[in-house]
User: Fold this.
Amino acid sequence: MKQPIRLTLCSLFILFLTVACSNSEDTGNKNNKESTELPVANEPDNANIITLSEAMAEGIKTEALQLTGLADKIQVPSHIKVNEQQLIRVGANVTGRIVEVNVELGDSVDAGTALAKLSSPELTKAQLEYLRAHSMTVLNERAAKRAKLLLDADVIGAAELQRREAELQVSRAELSAAEDQLRLLGVYKNAVNDLVKRGQILPSVGISSPKSGTIIERKVVAGQVVQPSDRLFKVADLSTVWAVGDVPEHIAGNVMAGQHVEIQVPALGNIILDALIIYVSDTVNPQTRTVMVRTVVENQDRKLKPGMLASMRILETPQEQLVLPESAIVRELNKDYVYLDKGNYTYLRIPVELGPEIGNLRPVISGLSVGQHIVIDGAFHIDSERKLERKE
Assistant:
């Protein structure tokens, strides 16, 4: 009976030791786990939060985020072109030979200035027809006056007076038609009056400019035979010019008439010209896959020359969005961060996603909301202090 009792006591003692060792091991593992996990949980907060002294925070400026109207700029190549609404193409009104050229390229001319002189058989024929019609009109006027006097004296009948008045009416119509023909050929009223007074055929007629401007093209020399279809001169008013740009088709939908544009001409240095889009083409250029846009630019001092290269920046319609100045942004490992003001000179670094720069501002895509107080000046100083604190 004594041996079983001993075995039972030994078994209980061994069981007690096993349980005690197991509890001690679990307690040790638990303590080790807590000691390693707690610092890891607190590390992100400690790494992104910094508290400055009052003296160090004196130069820090914060601002509450608000929605701002921001407009992007589309930059497209362009060039200066003659304003075609102020362009005149001058040619001959009749086939003939040029006997004199009076202007050179670049000359300024007034309306009515004779650019060249033309001699033509057709012109001679038209002058003869006018002189003939004029003479017949004078004769018929006199005949009608005599017929009226004879009718009053009861020498002729009323029918004779009516016949002579009808002949006068026809001759006057023929004279008017002959004068219109001379005008079409470039013989104007003063020259027609001289033709009647002197009775001499004009050897040549002037090719005149219908409006004032500058000669920008001349394609004629003395002795050249020309026809009405030939383009002899171009006269342009260069007080305004066109700036023509080519917008890529994938962004052409954002461009419309009435938008403001900034135009810079490299040949003129850093001068920025302001203009409005007056026309957007309805078709796409199949070679360049671009849409043509056109503006009118003032050119009173004549510094803009047709053919000059230019750069056109088209201002898009402003859109309300959150924006940050460049001074508020710090970068680390190719990521953008800003500092949020938590009060009591404490600042929290938070990551943000930003869009491309637009006029020294970066639109906020994600990471911030309206009303948050962000450090806009001194962010780099705060970030430097945070890095020093982490090293210590």
Remarks:
- Confidence is low (pLDDT under 50) at residues 1-10, 14-44.
- The CA atoms of residues 45 and 54 lie 22 Å apart.
- Residues 2-48 form the longest helix (47 residues).
- DSSP finds five helices and 23 strands in the chain.
